[in-house]
Amino acid sequence: MRHLKAGKRLGVTSSHRKAMMRNLVTSLLEHGQIKTTVTRAKEMRKLADKMIGLAKRSEATEGGDLHAKRQVMSFLNNKESYRRLFEEWGPAFAQRQGGYTRIYKLGNRLGDNTQMALIQLIGFDKAEEVSAKAPKSEVREEVTEALKETQQEAPAKASTKKAKVEEAVEVTEEAAKAKGEEA
Fold first, then answer.
1. What are the residue ranges of helices labelled H in the chain?
2. Which band of pLDDT confidence, cut at 50, 70 and 90, is reported for residue 128?
């Protein structure tokens, strides 16, 4: 019996499960976000948090914690994710006490109707999008200019409830007059 056993079995053998979790965590640290099933995302969240915790511990000690680095390297599959963990994610989460990932539930998968999820590191934002955008001040100026132009073209309507009621009464009176003229 499986009483008080932590973790989900995910319908695979223990070696397959271990390899799958290693691959998922490696991909998450390398890419910043991945799409997988909700159950797998919840299981891998535990391991990803442990890896980030080890990176933070190494960051906190002077010269780095060699044991923590070796533990992470023995778990991750490639050096790129290892490098990103210690150079980017560890320092980024230095002031955060936990909860390094978020899970967004997506729709169901077409093939087997399994609920899918997007698991993402909290500080993740695409560098291409940030660099492609103009500075906020320029965007604000363009938006305000466009708003001024549209306000000049169309007269402003009263937004109070009383004005809306009066406008509705006028419309109904005009409709009643139109019906009276037709008859």
1. 14-31, 38-60, 66-75, 79-84, 90-92, 127-132, 136-153, 161-182
2. very low
Query: What does the block give as tokens for 41?
Result: 């995302």
- Coil vs helix vs strand at 118: strand
- Name residues whose C-beta falls within 8 Å of residue 67's C-beta, 6 or more positions apart in sequence: none
Q: Report d(CA 105, CA 97) in Å as an integer.
A: 24
At 2 the pLDDT is: 83
Looking at residue 130, what is its pLDDT? 46
Buried b or exposed e, range 104-131, using 16+ CB within 10 angstroms = eeeeeeeeeeeebbebbbeeeeeeeeee
What is the Cα–Cα distance from 89 to 52, expressed in whole angstroms? 7
d(Cα 17, Cα 20) in Å, to the nearest integer?
5
Residue-range domains of the chain with CATH: 14-125 (3.90.1030.10), 134-182 (no CATH)
65-81 burial: b if 16+ Cβ within 10 Å, else e: beebbebbeebbeeeeb
